[in-house]
Amino acid sequence: MNRFFDRDRFHEIWETLTRNRSRSLLTGFGVFWGIFMLLSMMGGGQGLKALLEHELEGFATNSGFLISGETSLPYKGFRSGRTWTLTLSDIERLRRSIPEIDVVTGNIGMWGSQATYEDREADCQGRGVRPEYARIEEPKLAYGRYINEVDIDQERKVCVLGKRVYQNLFPDGGDPCGEFVQFGNVWFQVVGVDMNNGNIGINGTADRSLTIPMSVLQKLYNKGDDVDFICMTAKPGYKIKDILARSKEILFREHFIDPDDKKAVFEVNAEELFSIMDNLFKGVNLLIWLVGFGTLLAAAIGVSNIMMVTVKERTTEIGIRRAIGATPKMILSQIMLESVLLTLAFGLLGIVFSVMVLSVAEIGVSASMEMAVGFQVSFGAAMLAVLILTVLGLLAGLAPAARAMNIKPVDAMRDE
Amino acid sequence: MLIELKGVNKTYNNGQPLHVLKGIDLQIDKGEFVSIMGASGSGKSTLLNILGILDNYDAGEYWLDGTLIRDLTETQAADYRNRMIGFIFQSYNLIGFKTAVENVELPLFYQGVPRKKRRQMAMEYLDRLGLKDWATHYPNEMSGGQKQRVAIARALITRPRIVLADEPTGALDSKTSVEIMELLQQLNREDGMTIIVVTHESGVANATNKIIHIKDGIIGAVEENLSHTSSPFGADTIMK
Questions:
Q1: Which of 3.40.50.150, 2.30.30.100, 3.40.50.300, 3.40.50.2300 is the CATH number of B29-56+73-229?
Q2: In this predicted structure, what is the pLDDT of residue B232?
Q3: Which of A40, A237, A282, A409 could be cross-linked to A323 through a Cys-Cys bond (beta carbons 3.0 to 4.6 Å apart)?
Q4: Are A173 and A119 contacting, i.e. CB atoms less than 8 angstroms apart?
Q5: Model-level pTM?
C-alpha cells in the first residue's frame, strides 16, 4: 500500500466510479465542458487576434497621418472654404522643427489606372513615395529592392509591384525584375515585388499598389511640390498625439489657417487605434479567463458535491473497510484519488476535444485565408490546464475525504 | 491469557451520560469458544466493540495477546484489527459491488499482500467453506447462509488471534443458524481458533463451550458448557 499508483487502487477507484455510471458521466461533463470552453475560447481569441494582426501587417503602430482639407474659418483675410495642399517643404519644416519625430515622409496617390504587361492587365493605383516610406508600411520583398535615394535623384522610371498586381501580371511567378510594365502611358521597369498582404494602407493597400519614386510621379502628373499625405512616426517614448498637435500648429501658421479650425486638416492617429484594439483584446482575454475559469470552478464544485453524496451513501462500506483494517489514510487517499481521477479524465477529454475543434478551425481558416493562422493553444497552456485540473480535483476531494475519514467503523455498523 | 480485561469501564456521553460497562473483568484463553450472552442494553455490544478495538474504553485495562490496547491512534487500531481480529457481523457486511472472492481478499489488500497470492488464499478459504463455485458471485446472488460463510472466510483469511462474531445467526433461519454454529465449532475444534460470540439467543450460546452472562454492564455467571445442554437450539421458543 506504500505505492501510490498501484493497480489494485485504480481497480477500486474504477469500480466505484463506474458503479454510478450516469452520475459520474454527468458530473464529469461539467469538467469536460469547462475545460473545453476555456481552451477553445483561448484558441479562438488568439486566432482572431492573429487574423486582425495580419490585416495590419507591416504597418507602423506608432504612426500618425495628416491630410489637407478645406478651411472652415476665415483667417487673416482669407475666406473660409479655401482648399490648400501639403507640400514637400512642409515635410522638411516638420522634420527640422520637431526633433521627437522619427520618420516624416509623404505619399502621393495616382488612382484609377491600370498596369499592363504583355496581354495582361491589373487594376492598381500608383503610389509615389520616398525610400523612408518603408518604415511606415514595411514592404515584404520577395524579389528585388524597394525605391531608393538614387531613383528619386535621377527620377528613374522604376516600380515595385504589389502582391496582387504581380500575381495578375505574372501569373506564372518568377522574378519579374528588369521587365517593363506599362502604367497609364508610361513604361516602368520592375525593380522589386512587395508581398505585404495587410489590409490597411495609405492611398490604397500595398497589395494593389504600384510603388514608384515620388519625384517621378510628381513630374509625370504635374503634381509640383504637392503631397497627399504626411506620414510620421514618433521616436520611442513620445506620443504621436502630441507630435500631431505640434505639426498642425506649424502647418496652420505656414498656410495661414485659423488655429481653431477643426476641419482644415484631417488627422489619423494609428497609435491610438492600435492601442484601442490592444485593450479590446486584453478585455476579451480577461473575459475568456473569467468565463472559462468560472465554468471550471462550478464544475469542480459539482464534483465535490457528488463526492459528498457518494461518501454519505458509502458510510457502511467505508465502515466495513475500516473494521477490517483500512487506515484513515487509505480511505482519504482513495476518495481524493477518485476526485482527481474523475476531474482529470474528463478534463483531458475536454482538452483533446478542444484541440480537435481548434485544429479544424485552423485548417479551415488557413485554407480560406491562404496563410497560416494560429488557432491552436500552446502545449504549455494545455499543461497548465492539466495542472489546474489536478489542483481543482484535489480541492474538490478535500471536503468529501475529510468526511469519509471521520466515519468510524462503529457508526457504519449502527447505520443499518 | 489471550484476552484479559481488568475493570473496564465505558460511559457514553450523548447528552445524558450512560454508564454502559461498570467494571468488566474477563479472561479468555487461547482456543476457547466463548459466548457472551445478555439481553439488549446489557452492554454486550459495547463489550464486543471494545474487544474488537472498534471503540475505546474509559478506565481499566485490555490486554490482547500481551499487548495493552489503549490510546491507540486510528492507524494502529486499524493495523491491530487487520492482523489480530476477524469480524463476523449479524448483517454480514459484505461489500455489495465486490464478488465473494474479492470480499474475502479485502483484508489482505489492506495488508499489501500481492494480488496473486491474495486471490489464491481467498480461493482456498472459500473452498474450505464449500463456496468455491460461488467465488465470482456477488453477495446479492447468494443466500444468507452463503453470505455469512463468505464473511467467515473473510474473517479467517488474515489468520487472526480471535474471531469476534456479533449475533452471527441473527438474520438466519434456525436450520442455517445450526449450520453456521457447527461451522464455528468445527473451526474451534480443528484449528484451535479462539472464537467469541455475542448473542442474546440461548440456542447460539449453547453451541459454545463457555457462556458468559452479562447484565447491566457487569459480568454475571460464567457457565462451562462443554456438554452443550444449557439450552438447545429452538427448544425454548419464547427465548429461542
A1: 3.40.50.300
A2: 57
A3: A409
A4: no
A5: 0.71
d(C-alpha A158, C-alpha A187), whole Å = 8
pLDDT of residue B231: 59
| Nearest-10 crossing angle of helices A328-369, A379-405 | 160
Please determine, for residue A411, whether its predicted confidence score (pLDDT) is greater than 80: no
Q: Whose CA is closest to A296, among A6, A61, A35, A60?
A: A35
Closest in A326, A410, A412 to B110, CB measured: A326
- The answer to whether the CB atoms of B54 and A316 lie below 8 A apart is no
- Look at residue B146 in the predicted model and tell me its pLDDT: 92
Which DSSP category does A75 fall into? B
Q: How confident is the model at residue A413 (pLDDT cuts 50, 70, 90)?
A: low
- For B50-99, the pLDDT digits (tens) are 999 988 899 999 999 888 998 888 888 888 999 899 999 888 888 888 89
Q: What is the DSSP string of chain B?
A: --EEEEEEEEEEEESEEEEEEEEEEEEE-TT-EEEEE--TTSSHHHHHHHHTTSS--SEEEEEETTEE--S--HHHHHHHHHHHEEEE-TT----TTS-HHHHHHHHHHHHT--HHHHHHHHHHHHHHTT-GGGTTS-GGGS-HHHHHHHHHHHHHTT--SEEEEESTTTTS-HHHHHHHHHHHHHHHHHH--EEEEEES-HHHHHTSSEEEEEETTEEEEEEE-TT--SS-TTTSTTT-
Give the pLDDT mean for B33-54.
88
Please list, in sequence order, all residues whose beta carbon lies within 8 angstroms of the beta carbon of residue B132, skipping any fewer than 6 positions away.
B123, B126
The pLDDT assigned to B230 comes to 66
Determine if residue A234 is left, alpha or beta; phi over 0 gives left, psi from -120 to 50 gives alpha, anything else beta: beta
Mark which residues 74-93 of B lie under 8 Å from A by CB: 74-75, 78-79, 81-83, 87, 89, 91, 93
Measured N-to-C along each axis, helices B144-156 and B100-111 cross at an angle, to the nearest 10 degrees, of: 20
- ipTM comes to 0.86
- CB contacts, 8 Å: A1 with chain B: 110, 112
A292 CB-near residues (< 8 Å, 6+ apart): A34, A37, A38, A39, A41, A42
Contact yes or no for B75 and A327 at CB 8 A: yes
Q: In angstroms, rounded to a whole number, what is the distance separating the alpha carbons of residues A72 and B44?
A: 107
A330 touches chain B (CB under 8 A): yes
CA distance A18 to B52: 33
- What are the residue boundaries of the structural domains of chain A, listed by start? 2-56+275-415, 63-269
Predicted confidence at residue B239, as pLDDT, reads: 44
Residue A171 in grid coordinates: 501569373
C-beta of residue A230 within 8 angstroms of C-beta of residue A175: no
Instruction: Report how far residue A199's alpha carbon sits from residue A59's, in angstroms, rounded to the nearest whole number.
Output: 10
